[in-house]
Design goal:
Blueprint (H helix, E strand, L loop, with lengths): L13 E2 L2 E2 L3 H10 L7 H10 L7 E5 L5 H8 L3 E6 L2 H9 L8 E4 L16 E7 L7 H11 E12 L7 H5 L5 H6 L4 E9 L2 E9 L2
Parallel strand pairs: 3-4, 3-6, 4-5, 6-7
Antiparallel strand pairs: 1-2, 7-9, 8-9
C-alpha cells in the first residue's frame, strides 16, 4: 500500500454537477444538527441484511457528527468514523456516547491513501450512510475493496439524487439510479433494496 500523503486542506467540491458551496458552509451544516436520525426500523433492517458479530472491525466513512458511528459502537463493533472535515470529527468526538466510545479520525477518502494502520484484508465492514453521493464511488470503492477480509461487506444508504433540491440536500447529495446500478462493477455480489424513500446497497466479494 502506498505511503500516506500529507493531509490536504479541505476544498469545496462539485459532485454530479452540484457545487458543495464552501468549507464554512459544510462546517456550519454539521454544527447545527446532530446528524440524520437512526430509527429502530432502519437499524433492524441493517441488522437483518448485514451479518454482525461482536468485535467486528468496522470503518464508517463520511461519518459527519458520528450519529451512525455511535449506533454501530452500541452493537459491540470496533468502529472508527472518518470524515474529511476536521471540525466534524472534533464535534463527533465531543458528543456523548455509550461505552465504548468510537474512534474518530480525519481522512479524505477522495484524495489520500488510507491510514497506514489499515492493512489490506483486515476490515470486516465499511459503511457509507448518506455519504457516498458526496464522493466518486469509482475512485473510493476499489480502495475500500482491498481493505476487506474475505467475506467482508460494504453497506451504503443513500437518497436518490433529484433535481431542484434545496441547499441543505446539496450538502449531502444522493446517488442517481444509474450511479447505483454501476456500484456493482468489480464486486462479486450486490444487493439493492428500498427503504422508504431511500435506497440501501450491500457489496461483497471485491475482485471476484
Amino acid at each position: 500500500m502506498a505511503r500516506q500523503r500529507t493531509a490536504r486542506r479541505v476544498r469545496p467540491r462539485t459532485i454530479q454537477g452540484v457545487r458543495l458551496h464552501t468549507v464554512e458552509d459544510w462546517q456550519a451544516f454539521n454544527l447545527e444538527q446532530p446528524g440524520r436520525e437512526v430509527s429502530s426500523t432502519e437499524l433492524d433492517m441493517f441488522r437483518r441484511r448485514v451479518p454482525l458479530q461482536e468485535k467486528m472491525r468496522v470503518l464508517d466513512i463520511g461519518c459527519g457528527n458520528g450519529r451512525w458511528t455511535r449506533e454501530l459502537a452500541k452493537l459491540g463493533l470496533e468502529v472508527t468514523g472518518f470524515d474529511w472535515d476536521s471540525a466534524a470529527v472534533e464535534r463527533a468526538s465531543s458528543l456523548p456516547a455509550l461505552c465504548p466510545r468510537p474512534d474518530y479520525q480525519v481522512w479524505d477518502a477522495m484524495s489520500q491513501d488510507p491510514p497506514d494502520w489499515i492493512e489490506p484484508g483486515t476490515v470486516d465492514l465499511v459503511t457509507f450512510r448518506y455519504s457516498l453521493g458526496a464522493m466518486k464511488p469509482a475512485l473510493v470503492l476499489p480502495v475500500v475493496g482491498t481493505m476487506l477480509k474475505a467475506g467482508g461487506q460494504v453497506y451504503i444508504l443513500t437518497d436518490l439524487d433529484r433535481v431542484n433540491v434545496d441547499d441543505r440536500t446539496q450538502l449531502t447529495p444522493g446517488l442517481t439510479e444509474a450511479k447505483i446500478r454501476s456500484l456493482g462493477k468489480g464486486w462479486g455480489h450486490m444487493e439493492v433494496w428500498s427503504f422508504g424513500l431511500r435506497t440501501a446497497i450491500t457489496l461483497a466479494g471485491y475482485g471476484t
